[in-house]
Amino acid sequence: MDIDIVSVFPEYFQMLDLSLLGKAQNNGLLKIRSHNLRKWTHDVHQSVDDTPVGGGAGMVMKPEVWAECLDELLNLQDTQSAQAQDTQSQNTQNLPILIFPNPSAPLFMQKDATELSHANHLLFGCGRYEGYDARIPEYYRAKGIDVREYSIGDYVLNGGEVAVSVMLEAITRLIPGFMGNPESIVEESYTGADALLEHHQYTRPTTWRGISVPEVLTSGNHAKVDRFRRDEALSITSEIRPDLIKQLDCHKLDKADRKTLMALGWEVSGDHPRKNL
Predict the structure, then answer these.
(1) So where does S-adenosyl-L-methionine get bound (predicted)?
(2) CATH superfamily, domain at 2-77+91-184
(3) What is the pLDDT of residues 194-213, one digit of tens each?
(4) Domain coordinates in residue numbering, the chain
(5) Which of 61, 67, 74, 99 has the highest local Cβ count within 10 Å?
(6) CATH class entry, domain 188-276
(7) Cα separation of 234 and 231, whole Å?
(8) What confidence tens digit (pLDDT) does each residue in 114-155 have?
(9) Residues annotated within a binding site
(10) What pLDDT digit, counting tens, does each position of 26-60 carry?
C-alpha cells in the first residue's frame, strides 16, 4: 500500500518508522511518504492560512495552497476539452483515496478501517488552526476523487497529525502480513460480526501481589476458557458500550450467550437485544 501524508509538520511522522509500521516499510508492505504543505507556497513567509470569511477567531487553511499540493500528488491537470475531461474521469479510478480528519465529520469506525485496508493508495491531509477551507473536499469530489472526512472522537485536537496516526494504525494492521499473528486481529475488540469489547487479558505469574487470575484460565479446559472469555466480553460490553449489545444479531447468539445477556438484564428476542426496564 502507498501512503502519502501532507502536513505543515511532516517530521511528526518520523514515528511511523518505528515498531510494526517500520518493519512493514522495510519489508515492502507499505511505502509511506510525508510532504510539507509549505513546499507549495509562493510567499516569503510560506503562508498556508488566512482569516475566516465572515469574521471569527483563528485562521483557516487556504484552498490555493492545498490545491497546488493535491493537484501534483494526485497528478491532476486542468482540462478544457470534453474528451480530456472524460479521460481524466477514467484516470481518477486509479487515484488514491483522499482522507481529511475533521471533528465535524462522521466517526471513523472499524468498518472504515477494514474497507480502507484494501485500498492500494491513501492520501491524508492534515488540517491545522481552525481547519481547512470547506471548498477543498467539495472541489476534489467534483473531480471524481474519492474524498473521505472522518472524526476520531468527540473532542478537538491541535491538528490532524494525531488523527491521521490513529487511522493509519487501525488501517495498516489489517493488511495481510502486517501482524505477526493474524489470529490476534480476529479476537480483538470491534472485529467480526458481533462487535464486542475484548475480555480481560492476563499473563504470568498467575498470582501477583495477592491477586490471582480467574481460576478457569488455568484449568486447561479450552471450552470453559472460551466460554468464560465470551461471557466476560458480553459483561464488559454491556456495562461500557451497551450500544454494541443492541447491535448484536439475536439469531446468531447461542443458548449460553442468551443466558448471559438475560442475567445482565437484556431481553433477547426479535432481531436485536433490548435492555429490560
Answers:
(1) 127, 152-157
(2) SPOUT methyltransferase, trefoil knot domain (3.40.1280.10)
(3) 789 999 999 999 999 999 99
(4) 2-77+91-184, 188-276
(5) 99
(6) mainly alpha
(7) 5
(8) 999 999 999 999 999 999 999 999 999 999 999 999 999 999
(9) 127, 152-157
(10) 999 999 999 999 999 999 999 999 999 999 999 99
